[in-house]
Amino acid sequence: MMKTIKTLTMTLLFVLQMTACNAGDKVITSNDLPAAAQTFISKYFGGKQMSLVKKDKEGMKTHFDVMFADGTKLEFDNKGEWRDIEAKKDGVPAELVPAEISSYVSQNYPGQRILQIDRTRTRYEVDLSNGLELKFNKRFKLVGIDN
């Protein structure tokens, strides 16, 4: 009996922790996205079917996640600027990859596709179809490679 109560208590604590961790997530509609994000999606991913749109608050920061039926995922900041594009099926649209990064990849890794690109104020990271992750600084200089 005590073992059952202890197991139930541990399970309840786990569920409460998971709920608290995801408390900032809220499912929204695409109309609730910032205008810049809506325009971006329409321009570059207009033919794809959205399966989930979320608004996520982490402390003082808010970001938006958009998932498509084909597995493509986008992340936007609170202003609607893209932060992360994951397109493992079709690859990241070429026009969204800075020219310097595209050039570096085509010269050094011919035939490889960019499946994901992540940007912050200080860096870019791209995942290639061969499994490598390339890290660039703000000036598009390669600063690291992970596999």
Determine the fraction of residues in helical runs and give it as a percent range. 25-40%
Note the main sheet. 9 strands, antiparallel
- How far apart lie the N and C ends? 49 Å
Order of helices and strands: HEHEEEEHEEEE
Total of helices: 3
Question: Roughly how many Å is the radius of gyration?
Answer: 19 Å
Spatial strand sequence of the major β-sheet: 1-2-3-4-5-6-7-8-9
Q: What's the total count of β strands?
A: 9
**Which structural class should the secondary elements be placed in?**
alpha+beta
Percent of residues in β-strands: 35-45%
Unreliable spans: 2-21
Write down the oligomeric state.
Answer: single chain
| Shape call | globular
How confident overall, as mean pLDDT? 88
Describe the structure in your own words.
The protein is of the alpha+beta class and 147 residues long. The protein is built from 3 helices and 9 strands. It has a 9-stranded antiparallel β-sheet, with no helix packed on it. A hairpin with a 2-residue loop joins strand 2 and strand 3.
Short descriptors:
alpha+beta
Topology:
Layout: H1 2-21, E1 25-27, H2 35-45, E2 50-58, E3 61-68, E4 73-77, E5 82-86, H3 99-108, E6 114-119, E7 123-128, E8 133-137, E9 142-146
Antiparallel strand pairs: 1-2, 2-3, 3-4, 4-5, 5-6, 6-7, 7-8, 8-9
